[in-house]
Amino acid sequence: MNESTVVTEQKLGGRSGPFTLASLLSRYGMLLVLIALMILMSLLTPTFLTADNLLNIVRQMSVVGIVAIGVTFVIITTGIDLSSGSVIALVSVVVATLAHPGEYPLVLTILAGLGIGVLTGLINGTIIAKGKIAPFIVTLGMMTAARGAALLYTGGRPIGNLSDSFRFIGQGSLLGIPVPILIFLFVGVVSYLLLNKTKFGKYIYAIGGNEQAARIAGINVDKYKIMLYAYAGLLSSVAGIILTSRIASGQPTAGTMYELDAIAAAVIGGTSLAGGIGTIGGTIIGALIIGVMNNGLDLLNVSSYWQQILKGAIITTAVLIDSRKNRRK
Amino acid sequence: MKKTMFSALLASLICLALVVAGCASKGGNAESQAPAQASGSESGGGQIHIGAALPDFSDKWLSYLQEGMEKYQKTQDGVNVTYVDAQNDASKQLAQIETFISQKVDAIVMVPVDTVSAVDIVDRANKANIPIVVVNRWFEGVDKAASYVGSESITAGVMQMEEVAKLLGGKGNIAIMTGQLGQEAQIKRTEGNKQVIGKYPDMSIVLEGTASWDRAKGMALMENWLNSGKKIDAVVSNNDEMAIGAIMAAEAANKADGMIFAGVDATPDALEYVKSGKLQVTVFQNADGQGKSGLETAIKAARGEQVEKNVYVPYELVTKDNVDEYVKKWE
Questions:
Q1: Nearest-by-CA chain A residue for B212
Q2: Is the Cβ of A235 closer than 8 Å to some Cβ of chain B?
Q3: How far is the alpha carbon of B37 from chain A, nearest alpha carbon, in Å?
Q4: Which stretches of chain B are DSSP H helices?
Q5: Domain boundaries defined on chain A
């Protein structure tokens, strides 16, 4: 088949593919950075390396982590999704109005939230694929519009009074593990399978490696792009539901700047903005690196001004080390 | 195989989304925009006509500010006020002010939509020799206006911290949660906190960090702080939303008991927390008082009397003792 030929070529070219040596090494490289950071934090403060605190870090990063997984799919195809933070807000206010005690069944509330994410993603994807407009512009538009819709919907005010069953999603635990972490894991596994075990995943790498070649090979690039943005939107809405439940309030200002944290996590995790390269494992590690940094700097009570400078420096350095290592290889 | 399942899932979700979107547009934005209204008697010589430009009639807090103006207007003879709603659109506000100027009103009261374009609006009023009084939202260059009426951010920080100091008996470890770095309210409220802490040798700041006014970020910051091993006696936050986030984090970790939490704003959510005793202190910005003083100052300016450059309306401390009074204000 033509399609698989292209995919194989991409892999042989060392540009992509989940199982090539390059991507394994790059994943391993960032894992080392994560471990080094954790050792550093443990040395600097005795309160870092406790089971409580480690669970805390993963729980805190699950919202951004889930968004980052969605954005990894997008970035692999050389796209970008700037709308995730605003979609979180829109989902947040809508599910909060549906989640008042005794109003709608929980399942319906969740499906409605997910539906909004998918819908915004479909709009993004359709305009990008069919309108041939740069993803940066399209998702920037959605970022602005979705935030506006969230503010309009609530008149700028937060929405409270959420049912206990809804609160369980963000605040509850199963077998001692916080529910957000379980959802994060589930999303991670499903996304890993999607990216590595399905035609959908293969085509995404192919499109990212060389969109023209993918088209010539007969891949319906437009269709996969639309699906891809819909999936990113779906994951943003999952994140929005968790966030809303966690803070027990639907907030039109929720999720501000989350899109940038998510993109940073994906890029730290080895996803290349040039397309064709990126793994779910890498992105999760990227998200954890950001989480460890945030947490460690808070534990050490580093001034907020310095925190921003340090975070910027660490992100850039990590990616720099990673890219040099890849180049040497 | 998986692909078809994926598409089927997507398709079903889209249908659902459309249904929900339909419901949402019905439910949302129910408040209709009130038309601009002119009130007051129309007849008589020596009438004073004042134009009041407000950012958003649907905003609850601002509606109290307008009520404060209306109440004060009723006590004044021969004062005619036109209220206009910019619907949070800075260019609309500019057009409204231009209309006021062409109508040659005697004075303008403005709560700016946007504190950047406000400078230009003040300029236009000045050029037309119409005194303009800026209310509530301070900006760089506000001194060009005839007067600024509002509350001083630093006072909120001082009041909030003094109450916390009282509750702690003048000693303890304080964690300060600040708003978006670089904003006037963040800088001044924090400065107010620190002024008070400086007066008590047994009180110290053990932690300080920003949560950008956001509940989720306040919660995450507090979770990290709770794991820092430092003893925290009070969390003093630049606003209520972050304080609520901190309370939720402390409750989830079973560490909220005996900890003092303080916010600013007295939002409806926060008042619930004050009522249930979880949030000990918040600070109310007096909308009614700002509206009244704003109009009072504008009338004086219209009559050509000397007005104060800065009129500060005091904040009010909200604790469990007086919370019901404030709950009523939001109803």
A1: A256
A2: no
A3: 21
A4: 2-27, 60-74, 90-102, 118-127, 153-167, 184-199, 215-226, 240-252, 268-275, 287-302, 323-330
A5: 59-328
Predicted-complex ipTM score: 0.80
> Quick one: which of B191, B157, B149 has its CA closest to B281?
B157
Domain that holds residue B174: 153-284
User: Tell me, what CATH number does B227's domain have?
Assistant: 3.40.50.2300
B290 and B243 housed in the same domain: no
Specify if B26 maps to a domain: no
A234 interfacial to chain B (CB closer than 8 Å): yes
Q: Which residues lie closer than 8 Å to B156 by C-beta, 6 or more apart?
A: B185, B188, B189, B192, B264, B283, B285, B315
A–B CB contacts, 8 A cutoff, strictly below = 137
pLDDT in tens, B89-134: 888 899 999 999 999 999 999 999 887 888 989 999 999 999 999 9
Closest Cβ opposite residue A248 in set B206, B207, B248: B248
Identify from A247, A258, A294 which residue to disrupt to test chain B contact, counting B C-beta atoms within 10 A and taking the largest count. A247
Residues B229 and B292 in one domain: no
**CB pair distance less than 8 Å for A157 and B60:** yes
Span A59-328: which CATH code?
1.10.3470
Domain match, B179 and B101 both: no
Count structural domains, chain B: 2
Q: Please give the residue of chain A at the shortest CA–CA distance from B222.
A: A298
